[in-house]
């Protein structure tokens, strides 16, 4: 169970929110428990509400000499054991496209916050460009880590991951709506920094009829729009050409939520369509025929329309500089092919517990599972792989994947489906109780 409550040594309940809302109380209580926590047995140390194999996961109370302050920190190597929505959760980078980044692109703070090095500048100083070309340290993951900046494609993946939207549990059914997902994304943005700013300061979720999102969008445009680019995130409805050769991009809630004219130059629209072919194909279908949603994270220059007597006074004019699209199932789980969706939906229907590792900015030579089942007898998770192509390059790639999984998990220690030859999805691995779900 995850929450904002922390249990200090001796059983005292402590609010994680005090770090921002009541910093004096935060410092006073952690200072009072500092020595007691250091000398306590593991089971009596500070802890959150997460458990692993029935045991509480301890936290450390640490003192920073440089700032004369106290903070809570995850226990070494135990970040991945916390629940995804816990502030102290730290993903295992080897199980997703995070492994493509060199050290320093994603910097996990001891207090659960994350700082990232983006490939685009937040300040409005012409076209997007890298902020700093200083080389980052080489990675200890030889042959895999090449990416030295996080692009606009990696950022929505990070937000989705930090919001806990890459995992599924049976109790999530009927609670994973687009609006709920955006609310969790907004919360996740409060714990991610880039270029000295909280992402939440510049992040504008939009949804139909959501007045709070709409008011926040207009407030951020007023306070930040002149000096900074903004991140607009929502669910895309269409990309349509306009008479001047550009394309009007429509997100859900344009008229009854956030009141914005959103335009994208033709060159950027074409880049988005080429880079995100699955999303483009989904949007090309009639809305009633779509089996998925398309999430758009857009890096925009925005301003309030203040022309006197204009019928559009009070609306926002936003131009897309760059962005990324992500296709998600109706359960808000990202996927990269129709075959992956064909597996994800039955897993949800079967009530399985699993996670979907995301690619971030990884190139195709990085191997990580399409899904990881979390409810089997293997405590580290049961990898799942979908093979969906037969071309020569993919055949060689498939051989590499099979060799990797056999060496890492053993023959028979991982699940696969060859969608090119098997029309029926194989039975899923059994749960810990032994029941086979398919």
TrEMBL record:
InterPro entries: DUF1173. It comes from the Bacteria. Pfam families: DUF1173. Residues 123-146 are annotated as: Disordered. This is DUF1173 domain-containing protein. The lineage of its organism: Bacteria, Pseudomonadati, Pseudomonadota, Alphaproteobacteria, Acetobacterales.
